[in-house]
Amino acid sequence: MSLSDNNHPPFKPREYFVLTDAGKPVFTSRREDGDSDTLSCTMGLVQALLSVFIDDGDKLRSINSGELRITFLLRSPLYYVCASTWGEPESVTRTHLEYLHLQILSIVTAAQLRRIFERRTNFDLRRLLNGAEPFLFSLLSRLELDLAMSTSSLHCLQLDPNLRSRVADALVPITKMKDTLYIILIAGGRVVTLVRPRKHSIHPADIHVLVNTAHAPSIYNSPASASWIPVCLPKYDPATFVNAYISFLWKPEDNGIETSSNAESRGSSSSSRREDGRHPPNLSSDAAICLMCIGGGGEFETVRSWCDSVAQKLQSQGTLKVITDAMESGKTHYSVSQLAIPGLRHFVYKSRPDVQITFPTFEDPYDSRDEVRRIITMYQTVYDALHAKSGQSGPLKLQCIRTNKEIVMGWITQPFELYIVLSPRLPKTAVINAANAVTRWVKKEERNLLLRDAPVF
């Protein structure tokens, strides 16, 4: 596929709406000072439009008008809507709406929703979600640029495998913690390690919901050293809550050192509110180190004491300091220049068996927010074509887009998926050689880049 012109229009903020099937507003990403009457009219119009299709035994997936696409997702009793002019495939905004649904289910379970609306079809759900809006705004900000969420994968912290193994061994729970589901250590917004029962795996979407919840301002900025949060993991069990113990072992402001994530947040947001009225993502919280213990029982004191002992162990052994030093020095990231591949600008590598991705930092010419948005949208376009996510006749093994600015190629095999950005001047043979070189480099470095052989109990 060849595109002669790649001048992307300005990235106007996407708009998101959630309403009940009775037309009651639940959530909107619009400015808080927006006209409430206009919002109610918009919600009513959406509900009426969707009802026409439902009455005919059909579903409305999207409406296209010029650059604008309006995508709909029906998860009764809730309807989700996204309006976007970014030019991304329909599957991208549909994925955003699915995540929005999962985040709401983490607060109000599917069983609760069903019972509530069976009794009162015109129930105002905003009463139950009061105070939960920051979680939803935070999620939408993450979805904008999070490649792990786009590819339904985990993004792990680059770390020495021996160090990762020592951390994992420290997180194996004691026998008294009988109802423990998952223990996760997050650093820099990425997974360091994950310990789980032998019979249970965890869906990436549930991890993204947990990470977003833990790093929301109300949790991160809490004066308490740790928090207990009831949370529903929709992919694990959409009908019940589990208990999440969230403890921040280290925060970047603890020692006054500015991390790369902190600096980035200051560069991308000069005020506490973005141009679209949303709160910006809390990137300083993403730079922190967070321990999460998820369980279904009521062993609150046992879990708290055990987590405290883990924190002390990581501290006394110097493990925590090694991780924080690596984060502050930039050793947990890598540059595309380290691969020394001519014409290579960026890539995303997904290990399919591990359901994990790795990619270098975004650098020149992709060092501005809009350029990152543009190249991520191109990645999403290729990903959509390979996986036939938007109604194509079938999946592809290889897809290449050539523009006047770059070449973007996607390649899918049994063990991996590769999305690669290169100079537009490279011939076809050089593109293939570069792709092969990237896979060889990742294979050589995978023990540092990916989480392998995490302990089970």
TrEMBL record:
Residues 258-271 have a biased composition (Low complexity). It comes from the Eukaryota. Residues 257-281 are annotated as: Disordered. Residues 178-250 form the FUZ/MON1/HPS1 second Longin domain. It is found in: Endosome, Multivesicular body membrane; Prevacuolar compartment membrane; Vacuole membrane. InterPro entries: FUZ/MON1/HPS1_longin_1 (IPR043972), FUZ/MON1/HPS1_longin_2 (IPR043971), FUZ/MON1/HPS1_longin_3 (IPR043970), Mon1 (IPR004353). Pfam families: Fuz_longin_1 (PF19036), Fuz_longin_2 (PF19037), Fuz_longin_3 (PF19038). One of its GO terms (biological process) is vesicle-mediated transport. One of its GO terms (cellular component) is multivesicular body membrane. Residues 343-446 form the FUZ/MON1/HPS1 third Longin domain. Keywords: Autophagy, Endosome, Membrane, Protein transport, Transport, Vacuole. Residues 15-138 form the FUZ/MON1/HPS1 first Longin domain. It is a peripheral membrane protein. Its main location: membrane. Required for multiple vacuole delivery pathways including the cytoplasm to vacuole transport (Cvt), autophagy, pexophagy and endocytosis. Belongs to the MON1/SAND family. This is Vacuolar fusion protein MON1.
